[in-house]
Amino acid sequence: MDETRQFDVREDRLTADWEMLSTFRDASAPGWTRRPFTPEYAAARAWLRARMEAAGLRTELDAGANLIGRRPGMRRELPPIVLGSHIDTVAGGGRFDGMVGVLAAVEVARCLDEAGIRLAHDLEVVDFLAEEPTDFGVSTVGSRAIAGALDADMLARRDAQGRTLAEAIASAGGRPNEIAALRREMGAVAAYLELHVEQGPALEAEGLRVGIVTGITGIARYRVELTGRPDHAGTTPMATRRDAFAGAAEVALALEALWQDGKGVGTVGRATVEPNATNVVPGLVELWAEMRSVDGPVLAERRDRFAVMVREMAARRGLGLELGLVSSEEPVPVGARMQALLEESLTELGLPIRRLPSFAGHDGNQLAKVGPIGMLFVPSKDGRSHCPEEWTDLADVALGAQALGAALLHLDARLDAGDGHGLEEAAHASDS
Length: 432
Known about the structure:
This protein has 2 domains: 2-217 and 331-416, Aminopeptidase (3-Layer(aba) Sandwich); 218-329, Alpha-Beta Plaits (2-Layer Sandwich), CATH 3.30.70. Helix content is 35%, strand content 19%. It has helices at residues 2-6, 11-21, 39-54, 99-115, 141-147, 152-155, 165-171, 179-182, 202-205, 244-258, 296-317, 336-348, 364-367, 394-416, and strands at 58-61, 67-71, 81-85, 123-127, 191-197, 211-216, 218-227, 265-274, 284-293, 320-329, 332-333, 355-358, 373-378. Strands 1, 2, 3, 4, 5, 6, 11, 12 and 13 form a 9-stranded mixed sheet that branches. A 4-stranded antiparallel sheet has the order 8-9-7-10, with helices on one face. Strand 1 and strand 2 form a beta hairpin. 47% of the residues are buried.
């Protein structure tokens, strides 16, 4: 394809953008912390918006506070192709998760502009609001809004300071009272493509630089609140205690045991203890439990079994219990036709083909509700992520961006020619 040969990602420019975006961080926190609804997040988005506009994109913040850069296509009646990811991080996170997907998409738009390439479809480059889990117990906030999966109950949830998610979205420039109207129906997006770091060890272990994602894990999250009785830690006999923390420890160990067969993972990654004093038996513990699997029936069965286990434990220990399913997302397969198109793009670049699932959640979980999705991985050093040591060679990021651009051009041409039928079909090929 002549256009693909004209399309040249510049590693130096991509690296400069990455270095600059990395400077927007909470200096008082470890690693590269850039949480949503914070001053450093707002500053990063202001810089990113300027970079989008310099790449020839017309920018706006939608009602869900997603930052969108648009490039009109030649056939305005066609639904847009969307590229994107997120720039928020976990606390103490790194400089690659999410960031490289947004910056690669901006670089692709720049290359289109420089080469004078007009797509048939409109192109949307999106920095989705708050992909990582927030203090409101909701993740993929912005992409949920687009998919119609950000409901009133979620918007009413409060953080530790008493602020609602709706108020936080408004503080980021969104319009929470208009979010219901933001919803896009299935087919409103021609396709969604994302470049992401693997966050696992497979590609690096095999010496590969780009991989094709076969599907995205399902995720179920519970909030568990156990109420016991605070007592003197020295004078209260063990047999008469109602120790909320001991119950919470049993919950964590039960979750660990539930996933020992390798069909998924379970984690308690967040907990608070009251009164949190060395000489007081804990009277209240709140914890958040998460389960992930690419096998939908397994995830559903263990999600329900976990709830039964927690209820039985609380009754046996005489603890009060509040158990709430915060969110439950089914695994999202990438269609076989989309995988084939990505394979064609990698082959064109002389790259070997490796297919693998994603055990991390992504905005693609939500975008799959409005159109077919595709995802490319670049390797993570030692498989590390969500930590300051997170690293991906910038040369691999640039190659991934080149592959993303090639896939965009192929996809635009195929869909414009009416060859998009079946992109939404589930992929059944086994992982290589």
